[in-house]
What does this fold into?
Amino acid sequence: MQTENSDSRQYPTLFSWEDLTEIISSGCVIITLIYDYLNVHSDLGKLRRHPDHQEAYDQWRSKIIAAHGSIPQYLLKERLGWVMSDQTPPPTPPPQVANQPKYFTRDIPDKLHKLLNNDWGYAVPHNVEHWVCWSRIPLIHQDLYTSDVGYQNALSNGLYGFTNSDNLDGAQEIQNWIIKKFGKDTTAAYFLNPPHLQSVKEVQHFHIFVKR
It folds into this structure.
């Protein structure tokens, strides 16, 4: 949910599109998110909010936790609508969906995923949109990989990609979905953190940065 202080475009940018793609391709995203959460400063700490934006986020986060118990609880109930009680079980696919895929695909049914704008995005250039796609079915699946080594690596390290890249081992369905959603001429970067490093473990998700 956006507030008057949540839009990152109200704050100065901290890096360029080229900086962003370098961070993602080098794998710094995973480390940066952890270090940022722990407030540890390092040369890898590039992907972050503007300090004033971070302060506004921290205040908002405290209010949400006080009202809902946790960020995942708020997300599942209020933003995704996938939990209809005070419980927070991992979301499961609705049984009424026919021909449910084993994993996230280009043509994933609407009931199995939701695309949300990152209300508290990082200090990306103002012409870059930050989206998060939330999925009720696996994003990483062995059938998507040409080798077990690639599959195991994705489980441990996540995955990333760019819409102008041909290196799609494991990410082809995600990339095809992005192109279908945003257009074939879209310039975008995306990444998926490994489960044990995700801030919201209850729902699988990946980040998308779209350059306009």
